[in-house]
Structure to design on (468 residues):
């Protein structure tokens, strides 16, 4: 049975057992119930499914993490800046403030997920599993999720509180303050390295396998400039033979293509389930206003971006749609609107896919002086109907890989993190603002979000990022 068909069954239970205060949101309010609950394999399995349910939240992969990873860059934009109280609109002009709901929701829901993971990892060693290999895999899954959540947090907020133990007493946490990014990255690498060792080679639907952990670990290493180490992990995924590109760019996204050979890890959604509460809102909210129910005009590809596609590139029509009556506006076809109602899209959100791995592997090889970068770049180009790249020097390949990532990964929540990783965010965005006669200029302070005001109000030891 697929995880998505079971996730919601434990979601309500887990919210009760691992629900948190409205302020810090990492301390369970019903600790006695939780202590009594996690005492068998069945209950741990339910708790694990609850962790996956947490990833569905709007502040995480239901909506916000995708939007913040794209709208902050130059390729997509917010149709109406004031929509949703400026939740995404402030990302467009780098005016995001500490009271923005998006800033608070990503933080809160990430730490809720981390607390759920910590509870499981704190209890699972004492639980007898019928299959010891399954227990090992579940430990690997939880360390993968914790590493992924902290990777998002440290890239978005900089120094963040590092909590790797189950929090049973609020006073244990308050006053800790923020942990330096270097220490957070070290923990992320530890978690993902452990996940690589504990996860199976083959993938089960909705769960990470070894390749997903190696891919995210490679991304973490690249983000820190460790390109040689990243090449080892990304190369291991490529050489595993487990994953492959789908033959056509039309066969990757949508409910008909879920769980395909290109998917390393996805957050599962289902439409028409549990009172239409298990779908994702991105499909409708990432459409131009008025084109479908609850369309918000978030994360719309720009005209300038769409013009970057070469003639014959299948991604222009497979990844990007256009509503000619709406100005016109382009929108992402990677998110499938459901007939069951607004905010109930049934398509899974793919967090890690093989095309992403191939392009990052090409980048890691190119930056570390290794040979063969063009080969992996060309695999993605050829699948899209394009000829091999003409780039040969390191500089030209760097430019070609960056462009290919833009064209291939549009709308999935990667562009802003790519700009930050390559050190081009400030230069690129300031040039874009100038070219479009927009009176905005950003600096180093704008590369991370403000710490949520609710956290500052709750714990004086947590300080605000400079410039906010």
């Amino acid at each position: 049975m697929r995880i998505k068909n079971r996730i919601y069954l434990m979601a309500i239970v887990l919210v009760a057992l691992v629900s948190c205060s409205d302020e810090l949101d990492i301390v369970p309010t019903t600790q006695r119930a939780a202590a009594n609950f996690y005492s068998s394999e069945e209950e741990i399995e339910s708790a694990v499914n609850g962790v996956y349910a947490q990833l569905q939240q709007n502040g995480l992969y239901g909506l916000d993490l995708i939007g913040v990873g794209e709208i902050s860059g130059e390729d997509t934009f917010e149709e109406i800046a004031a929509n949703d109280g400026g939740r995404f609109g402030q990302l467009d002009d780098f005016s995001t403030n500490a009271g923005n709901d998006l800033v608070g929701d990503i933080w809160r829901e990430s730490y809720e997920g981390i607390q759920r993971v910590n509870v499981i990892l704190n209890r699972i060693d004492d639980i007898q599993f019928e299959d010891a290999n399954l227990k090992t895999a579940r430990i690997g899954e939880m360390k993968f999720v914790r590493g992924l959540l902290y990777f998002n947090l440290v890239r978005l907020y900089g120094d963040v509180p590092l909590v790797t133990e189950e929090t049973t007493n609020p006073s244990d946490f308050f006053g800790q303050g923020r942990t330096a990014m270097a220490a957070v990255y070290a923990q992320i690498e530890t978690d993902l390295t452990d996940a690589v060792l504990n996860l199976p080679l083959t993938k089960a639907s909705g769960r990470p396998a070894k390749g997903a952990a190696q891919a995210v670990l490679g991304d973490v290493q690249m983000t820190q400039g460790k390109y040689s180490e990243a090449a080892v992990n990304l190369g291991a995924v490529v050489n595993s033979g487990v994953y492959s590109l789908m033959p056509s760019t039309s066969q990757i996204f949508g409910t008909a293509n879920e769980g395909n050979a290109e998917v390393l890890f996805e957050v599962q959604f289902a439409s028409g389930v549990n009172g239409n509460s298990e779908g994702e809102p991105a499909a409708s909210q990432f459409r131009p206003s008025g084109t479908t129910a609850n369309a918000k005009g978030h994360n719309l590809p720009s005209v300038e971006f769409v013009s970057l596609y070469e003639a014959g590139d299948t991604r222009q029509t497979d990844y990007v749609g256009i509503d000619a009556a709406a100005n016109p506006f382009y929108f992402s076809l990677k998110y499938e609107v459901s007939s069951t109602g607004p905010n109930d899209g049934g398509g899974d959100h793919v967090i890690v896919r093989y095309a992403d791995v191939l392009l990052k592997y090409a980048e890691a090889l190119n930056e570390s002086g290794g040979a063969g970068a063009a080969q992996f770049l060309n695999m993605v180009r050829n699948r899209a109907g394009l000829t091999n790249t003409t780039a040969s020097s390191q500089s030209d390949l760097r430019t070609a890989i960056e462009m290919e990532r833009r064209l291939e990964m549009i709308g999935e929540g990667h562009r802003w993190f790519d700009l930050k990783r390559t050190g081009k965010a400030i230069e690129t965005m300031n040039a874009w603002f100038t070219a479009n006669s927009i009176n905005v200029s950003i600096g180093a302070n704008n590369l991370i979000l403000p710490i949520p005001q609710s956290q500052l109000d709750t714990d004086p030891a947590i300080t605000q990022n400079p410039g906010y």
